[in-house]
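Lecture 7 notes: from sequence to structure.

We start with a single chain of 92 residues. Read the sequence below before looking at the structure.
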Amino acid sequence: MADGYLDGNVLAGPLSELFAVDVTAVVSCCVSCGQTGPMALLQVYTQAPGLVARCPGCQEVVLRVVSGPTSTWLDLRGAVSLRFLTAPDQEG
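Now the structure, written as tokens:
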């Protein structure tokens, strides 16, 4: 764990229970600085109740995931959008 965080790949397990796609490949856009990139590049901190994922560009919180015995909370207020590819990417 470098600098106290893990990379966004740690989100794959908890979010796979909510989404039917590999969320580490989903492209997020930070509300604060506008940086875009796959969720696998987010910096995920585990020293809290749940997971806190921060933007690697500006360190603002992009998302939070907290799981309890009967519910999971997903806070995405730090993301402008999440882009899910539904067909092979044709962008060059």
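The radius of gyration is 13 Å. Keep this in mind for problem set 3.
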